[in-house]
Amino acid sequence: MYEKDGEKYFVFDSHLHFWDASPDNWVKGQEEYAKGWIECFHAYMGLGPPETHWTLEHFQKYSADDFERDVFGAGVDQATLQSTYLRDWYVDGFNDIEKNAKLLDRFPGKIRVNGRWDPRDGEAGLQQLEADHAKYGIQGVKLYTAEWKGSSRGWKLTDPAAVPFLEKCEELGIRNVHVHKGPTIWPLDKDAFDVSDIDHVATDFPNLNFIVEHVGLPRIEDFCFMATQEPNVYAGIAVVVGGLMHARPRFFAKVMGELLFWVGEDKMLFGSDYAIWEPKWQIEGLVDWAMPDDPEFADYPRWTTTAKKKVLGLNAAKLYGVEVPAEFQLTNGGTPAAQEDAQLVEGAT
Amino acid sequence: MTLEDRVLAALGTVIDPELDEPITALGFVGSCAVSGSGEVDVRLRLPTPQCAPNFAYLMAADAQAAVLGVADVARVSIVLEDHFTGAEINSALARGGDFDDAFPGEGTGSLDALRELFRRKALVGRQARVCQALLAGGATAADVAGMRLGDLPDDTDGARCRELRRELGLPHDASDAMLVAGDGSALTAEDLPKRLRRARLMTLSLEANGELCRSLLAVRYGCPDHEEVAA
Description:
The structure holds two protein chains of two kinds. By secondary structure, chain A is of the alpha/beta class. The N and C termini of chain A lie far apart (42 Å). In chain A, the strands form three sheets. Chain A has a five-stranded parallel sheet. Chain A has a three-stranded parallel sheet with strand order 3-4-5. Chain A has a single domain, classed as TIM Barrel, CATH 3.20.20.140. Chain A is built from 13 helices and ten strands. Chain B is mostly helical. Chain B has helices at 3-11, 53-68, 86-94, 99-102, 112-136, 141-145, 156-167, 192-221; strands spanning 15-16, 21-22, 29-34, 39-45, 75-81. The radius of gyration of chain B is 19 Å and the shape is elongated.
């Protein structure tokens, strides 16, 4: 719970990690990639306030105590740990479901783990998904379409091999599909950040929610146009907050303005992307933030207390079926005005 | 102009397709050494080692072609540093190969479609900026819709609009409409509000990417970051 100026915020961090990227966990012969990956993440941490930066050594591997202090100590009520395997580079995975699950017993009722799948795993992958669901009751998965596997440099949600996995998610009630769009997807000559595959599956699987992590950055325009047309597509605003709020405040304001206009406050989910960035400064910053009082920002929706409460926690709590105590609920109901405006502009390509 | 100046000017014509800005302005040219006998060594560095190989290749290949086009240049070596596909790209460029030579079997053809897509995005963004500036200066939507390509302001956005129209094969005579849709047809005053709303988003996307790249480049190489950081 985070409280400021008499308002109480239920904080649902929908996207964080508990990883081990220390040299002991690097796959022999793949050290260059394992090292490059974590150092790239570490560079992103540099976009946050200087007092929140860690040493690379600490960043490579942190403890459950660190997690407790940095996450729950910051007022986070509920946390969804995302699984990222990257087993081509990390012996025990970067943060696989088993590692994430080590935190379940320590923080009962406050943490859930999401699973993952990869269509390139075929039948074995489907069985693993069922097993993960049976063992942990997962309600969501994190998909990393740019993950390398052998000679493959990635996949798309529209690949025929992905269909049985999406069907299995529907069947098991794993409703929340977090998708990370990253670089180097195959084929290499196409735009790696293309989000059109999500557009297709969102239409084909209306019972699943597709949460696009880091809102398709840098292609937010493609993402926003899609989100206006697909009711089950959500914006995971992780990197937006961590990467821009401190480092690029005016750009942050514009990105938030566009998201509030096109996607709407009912479909944006807070995620800290811990340990890339600590949740504390992000939560405090989001609650303190206001759309700049400047003509350039005049026609963007406002960042109201209602919007803050929804984005920081209520929206994700709804997707994950978490009951939110009355003291955190909206008192005025709040209407997502942006939705209607966005509809007017739809189809204006 | 010295040979070095001319080489740098040539590198200034190389555009990052995603950001629609010259690689020199973005700080991607780490060093450029020119010997007395016309041998040029250019080192390129990108904001992250994971920058998409296709865009990385386009910039490196364009840099090679641009420098080779400078008179008195005898030999060019382009080296992309600290990139996860740097070895493949550098060796393909060194032997005069193309993208398929750098990544055999990993693409489906040339990079032309990708380049065109981003030129189209760039044009939408640039012409919207021109339009916004005119509207802010007091012009009406009807005024702006009636303007010709020859009326484009003589600034970076204007020049880049003209260049992109030529590159994309869209009408580009001085008497052609200043603002066009993707098929080259002129935009009307009624089209403008919707177009601008979408274009603003697209421009923001390009700019936000550029901002992120600049921030990461500053973190990665410790080079000065001139953008203001103020709440």
